[in-house]
User: What shape does this take?
Amino acid sequence: MQGAVQIGSWILLIVVFYLLLFLPEQRKNKKFKAMVSSLKVGDEILTRGGIYGKVINLQDDYMVIESGAEKTRLKVLRNAVGSIVSSKEEEKESK
Assistant: This one.
């Protein structure tokens, strides 16, 4: 009887860890992958390094962004995107 209670408490502990630690992380990763896959040429982004830029070219693993008044072009990994500041679709809807 005591062994069953110990096993049950371990199972409960594992379930709680899964619900509190692993499940939110999986949701966050899924949301990030959806954001990165929805990138389009013309979207304005903010990289995780703090660089604002406009997407000029998209490839499988990387993209080229244009940033600054000098129109500097940077080649960055797609996973470096922190957030999409504005997209072409948002601009069309606001006009």
The beta strands are 44-47, 52-58, 62-67, 72-77, 81-86. The mean pLDDT is 89. DSSP finds two helices and five strands in the chain.
